[in-house]
């Protein structure tokens, strides 16, 4: 401490200050991580809804067509079909814009978090290597290391989920993921659609070939592979420190 804490009043004031600061920083960190993860979960939920709408679209159009045939009200059933397809296309565009906005707002923050966490991983491992396995310092460093790993993995896991839920076409013997937008559009009953509606769906299918990627500083895509690369980089830096020490 830069001042004398032998006084009881000064000591407890310092303890109170540090306790409050620690609580504020911990809550800010949790809020920051859960906010970004929550937005990525929102993107996943919207993609799930979009896939469900895609699979239900033929049935929806059939029901609307049946309503127009059974009622005597004048109207244009084709206009109703175009409205339903237009809403579906707008929803698809909205989901992509949401993911792009999340990436634009939080990319730099995630990059800073990755850099700091990678340094902490390296230094924590280095510190653990100098401590006894049964010592308090080793256990404390191990728990802190686990927290840093969880912070990084949260971003990578949810970013990976967003990418998987967009997906590409899978026209093979493997079972496609039930939440892939491209596959959901491909599995529709295209034969019942008129040509103009097919063109709209074809645009969605083509757009789905380009995956949504949440990135760290527009350089590192958040995925499980990125998480493993960060672990490898941190371990390589640790080996450098150990070699320099020797």
Automatic annotation (TrEMBL):
GO terms for biological process: signal transduction. It is a multi-pass membrane protein. Interacts with Orco. Complexes exist early in the endomembrane system in olfactory sensory neurons (OSNs), coupling these complexes to the conserved ciliary trafficking pathway. It comes from Harpegnathos saltator (Jerdon's jumping ant). This is Odorant receptor Or1. The lineage of its organism: Eukaryota, Metazoa, Ecdysozoa, Arthropoda, Hexapoda. One of its GO terms (cellular component) is plasma membrane. The chain crosses the membrane at residues 102-126, 138-158. It comes from the Eukaryota. It holds the Pfam family 7tm_6. Keywords: Membrane, Olfaction, Receptor, Sensory transduction, Transducer, Transmembrane, Transmembrane helix.
């Amino acid at each position: 401490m830069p001042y004398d804490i032998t006084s009881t009043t000064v000591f407890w004031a310092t303890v109170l200050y540090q306790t409050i600061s620690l609580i504020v920083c911990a809550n800010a960190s949790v809020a920051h991580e859960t906010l970004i993860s929550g937005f990525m979960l929102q993107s996943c939920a919207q993609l799930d809804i979009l896939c469900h709408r895609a699979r239900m679209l033929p049935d929806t159009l059939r029901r609307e067509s049946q309503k127009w045939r059974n009622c005597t009200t004048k109207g244009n059933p084709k206009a109703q079909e175009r409205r339903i397809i237009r809403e579906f296309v707008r929803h698809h565009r909205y989901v992509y814009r949401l993911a792009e906005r999340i990436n634009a707002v939080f990319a730099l923050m995630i990059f800073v978090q990755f850099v700091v966490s990678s340094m902490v991983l390296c230094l924590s491992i280095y510190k653990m290597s100098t401590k006894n396995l049964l010592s308090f310092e080793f256990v404390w460093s191990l728990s802190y290391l686990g927290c840093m790993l969880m912070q990084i993995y949260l971003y990578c896991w949810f970013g990976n989920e967003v990418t998987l839920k967009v997906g590409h076409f899978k026209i093979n013997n493997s079972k496609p993921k039930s939440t892939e937008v491209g596959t959901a559009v491909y599995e529709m009953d295209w034969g019942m659609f008129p040509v103009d509606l097919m063109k709209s769906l074809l645009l969605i299918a083509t757009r789905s070939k380009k995956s949504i990627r949440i990135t760290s500083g527009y350089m590192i895509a958040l995925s499980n592979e990125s998480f493993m690369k960060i672990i490898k980089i941190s371990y390589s830096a640790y080996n450098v420190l150990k070699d320099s020490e020797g």
